[in-house]
Amino acid sequence: MPNSPPPGSTLVLVGTSKGAFILSSDRSRKKWRVDGPHFPGESVYALAYDDRGGRHRTLAATRSFHFGSTIRLSDDFGSSWTGPERQNIRFPESSGLSLVQVWQILPGPRNEPDLLWAGVEPSCLFESRDAGENWSPVKGLLEHEHRKQWTPGGGGMCLHTIVPDAANPRRMIVAMSTGGVYRTDDAGEHWRPRNVGVRAQFLPNKYPEFGQCVHKVVSHPARPERLFLQNHWGLYRSDDSGDTWQDVANGVPSDFGFCMQMHPHDPETVYIVPMQSDEFRCAPEAKLRVYRTRNAGSSWEPLTKGLPQEGAFETVVRDALSADSHDPAGIYFGTRNGKVFASANDGDEWSLIVDGLPSVCCVKAATVS
Amino acid sequence: MAVSIVLPRALFQYAKGSNTVVLDGPFATVEDALDELAERLPAVTDRLLTEQGELRPHVNVFVGEESVRFLEGLATKIPDGATITIVPAVSGG
What is the pTM of this model? Predict the structure, then answer.
């Protein structure tokens, strides 16, 4: 990107099966500039923008089909990227594990500007204390006693979701497919499964202690004890930091889906994109609908204005739904068919902002500080 | 006797732009030669081997014209003056 976007601009980072694209717009979010592909031919399942510590750093998890995975950094909005020389996410030889790919990159709290986390396959959490250059595994998960019983879902055995507790720096939720939700209350030393009430449709015991195929968990920093969960069949809410979960699939055409996004300003508002089933994995009735709750899951409404309502055999995967921090919020999602849709008014109306990309694996929206 | 390792284009950037690395031998096996390569150019071997020291599934290594997958893997013996060629597998999507 030859010209850096000015403060207040909107960034939409799109990872695909064949590289990354950086979409940018001004605050109005009407016209979009598309820059890419970055890393052509490599899949990009995780992207992040980190504006802490005076940086404008973009992080991209790239996977070469032949030569493995790494996290690359750019401090100039993609004009240049670090190599890096050594692959910077590696399991210790003693673990017996080898990295397949990175599924999530999450900048830490603003008061620790060099702290980031990454979720990887095979399931593990990595931590960086130098703004993303070097990474080390979190031992409590690396050596977890359940590891041998975690099994891969369709996408691989991945830790894809990281939800730090905004009020308690020692508490964090992670989710993996399969394995379910785990929580630490002691800064990563110990992790306990937190899946009471979450169904495992594909197991003889539908409510095991762990082993669920959780697809996404979200939370709002203003109300960190409340969590929402999109499951492999099932839509849930927890009001006690994951100790128990209640079904909130009230009025959705299917409770199967992958992605879930919290509204940036309203802890009652959540977005999902239901899929027809775990066999078909496309929009129900070929109508592409985002569903929104404004009452923490008591009811859900379809958002369809501007979205195709016939012949839309679209799939939206677990990290391909995102929100910016403007008011009204911008909501964005990408599809396996290479389309990216955007709404600049909380999801009320949508438009197709880019088409013809490779299969979209992740979408991350951000506002340039 | 020296052993030459011929790299694919994607790895030139990790070998100071070179397409061939010449190592002072002799080496008994491919693994021994890759150990020496890891000392000199660890960024290259990161991309050939997993953390467990296994050849990545879509990377092929030839000694002369023979793939080590059909010989003894990384334990394949290297004749003096051999050329080892790294080739990305014809695979992908």
Answer: 0.96
